[in-house]
């Protein structure tokens, strides 16, 4: 009970100070009265007893201090008074309070938004069981590019590796058309996963079960499916009795066996349904079309698994040389794979931006506090002379800075609450971007950053303000303290330097983005509607005549639509698909290692006209011609036949004994995978020979693309009513999607740079305004002896220019040392671009001089008579 009583007493002393003081006074009076009565009982008069008792007790305030010390509430009481005094000081100086709290709120708020974005996308562990043991498996082309893996190789990895517990296979397949509970057809996003997929991730369904290995036959479809939480709501309105019910997928009934948890997501977008992955019969080992994940065995490290991978690869090359020679394998952490190296680098930059911005805000507030302490110099020195300890004054000033930090954190919380939904709502294909939120983790970082900021600039300003000890009082007539001015000038130059670093980074990213936006992908994007048509492989297997029959009916219907100029299709959707690769060589080549890696596309006859790809020589495909024909890119033609005409030559496909294709045309270079990537040699297959089920159709016309969607949808439904409706977009739209991810980083960095410029401008303004107020006497004397207002203005602007020059020089040096780290995320832009450096420097000088203009004009209007009379 003693501990509880002590705690209650201290709490009352903090929260109910007036009542506590009244109780303490009453208790002292009681003991004093008891002592007086005791002495009067011993024979003293009341006057004598009262005097003796007071002498014994001592001064009441001293006794109360002793009581407070005995109860341990003195520190609590002093802290309460410091808090009250800090609030009164801020209310007495609203301009200072607004500047300090506003600067910190903006800096903390922006840094918190950046952190919450990076935390959700990059730092937070994947929501799976033991995510640190999850890895991805990929193959590497002979040219060093990451590629999907073949089924047989994935199976052999699991069989031969001792450091992998299990391997799960997944692949995205064409959307399926489902009949919902209200008899409306819905387009469902679909993925195929192996029975071990969910086991590898360590995720269990919230309802039912997942696929059982024994239920998957060799090449046979088992009509069971697992719903995602989204699909469960879309199809069955989250009915808890859904397990065992059937879903109509394009005329076939599938049984629901489970529903995944609401927080389960793998990849960019959550599908509506998961279908069982069915191993294909007699699949070729070089058919690399699936994606694989694995879980490390207990006690196994990633490095051990990678070393074992090299041994497994050597065995596969030895046993299957034709399919694996020259190919490598790569294992990486699953979170690294899902995010990608470019996104990881970008978010690493954002973390650095957040740290710089927070540092800039701290420097700004430190400068304000130093100027504030200089204004209170007489008060502080007087209190020191009267006996106040330096530690006591430092504590009071530190409490004031912590109050400023707390108010800044509250303001930052409001700004973050407004900004986070905007970031979360961005339509960008970035994993977990929609999970950006203001949660306990973000609040904890905000509180910690505010506390550290308050302590850092609070301790610095408190020590500086009380550094003079108990010396003589400082008089304003002697001007501002020179060392204090030097320190504050150094802080402002630091602000300018930090703003320079952030602005240079934003400028380089902006220039890179402009270069990327002007990138010539090799085809025209104007007036083109894209319609993605996906034929389900169960009814339209790859190479089946039914595939060609479907497109031979569909393309003439689309070409007959009013306003259509041409219709062409490609197996690759520009800037969305990952592309397909294989190898080719001259027809006389017998060495497998001499084959060249190329991109390949299955395209229709009018593809080149519809996508605006220039036909340089030869012709397009002729469906009536016998034998295999191909059209190749100009780069591949130059590479294979540098001194001969490519048209009429023949190419060997895939293997030394592979099929031969006759080159009938040469077209311009195209980059339809990665905006800004290098042009890769490309081979175009005729769709009538390849019979690829899924095509992206390009409809070029003089009409608005949106005016054609209904007609295209009707044409598809007329041929096959069970097909899911095409997914529509435009070439311009998909190009903009490719620009969206670098645009996110650019927006955040540019916004941060803008905040940095404002904070730097506020710092320059504050210092110059304070310096002008301290030099009013000097300015008055100068004006009295004949200085013109323009000369006084020039004097102030000169000081500001020197300040800016020092900050720019330091910022330029730091920028040149740091911007090299941006090299990997810049496109066609040098990290030391002179135009960016010059533009940023000019902008900072303009902003700094503009911030100095008002104090300078105030100095030019000084009245010498008024100033001298005040002195």
How big a fraction of the residues is strand? 15-25%
Tell me how many strands there are.
23
Shape label:
elongated
Mean pLDDT: 81
Our Rg estimate from Cα atoms comes to 38 Å
Separation of the first and last Cα atoms: 64 Å
What structural class is derived from the secondary structure elements? Answer: alpha+beta
What low-confidence regions span 5 or more consecutive residues with pLDDT below 50? 215-219, 469-480
Main sheet summary: 6 strands, mixed, barrel
Q: How are the strands of the largest sheet arranged? A: 4-5-10-7-9-8
Helix content: 40-55%
Number of helices: 27
List keywords for this structure.
27 helices, 6-stranded mixed barrel, 6-stranded mixed β-barrel, alpha+beta, 871 residues
Structure characterization notes:
The protein is of the alpha+beta class and 871 residues long. 53% of the residues lie in helices and 16% in strands. It has a 6-stranded mixed β-barrel. Strands 15-16-21-18-20-19 form a 6-stranded mixed beta barrel. The longest helix is centred in the C-terminal third of the chain and has 44 residues, at 731-774. The two termini are 64 Å apart.
Summarize this, please?
This protein is α+β, with helices and mostly antiparallel strands and 871 residues long. Helix content is 53%, strand content 16%. The chain is built from 27 helices and 23 strands.
Question: How is this fold's topology laid out?
Answer:
Layout: H1 2-15, H2 17-41, H3 46-57, H4 60-71, H5 74-92, H6 94-123, E1 134-140, E2 146-147, E3 149-150, H7 151-160, E4 164-179, E5 185-193, H8 197-201, E6 207-208, E7 224-227, H9 229-236, E8 246-249, E9 252-259, E10 273-276, E11 288-296, H10 302-319, H11 321-324, E12 328-333, H12 334-339, H13 341-375, H14 377-385, H15 390-424, H16 440-465, H17 482-517, E13 528-533, H18 545-559, E14 564-570, E15 581-586, E16 596-603, H19 607-611, E17 615-618, E18 629-633, H20 634-640, E19 650-653, E20 660-667, E21 682-686, H21 687-690, E22 695-701, H22 709-719, E23 727-730, H23 731-774, H24 776-784, H25 789-818, H26 834-860, H27 864-870
Parallel strand pairs: 5-10, 7-9, 16-21, 18-20
Antiparallel strand pairs: 1-2, 1-11, 1-12, 3-11, 4-5, 4-8, 4-11, 6-9, 7-10, 8-9, 13-22, 13-23, 14-22, 15-16, 15-19, 17-20, 18-21, 19-20
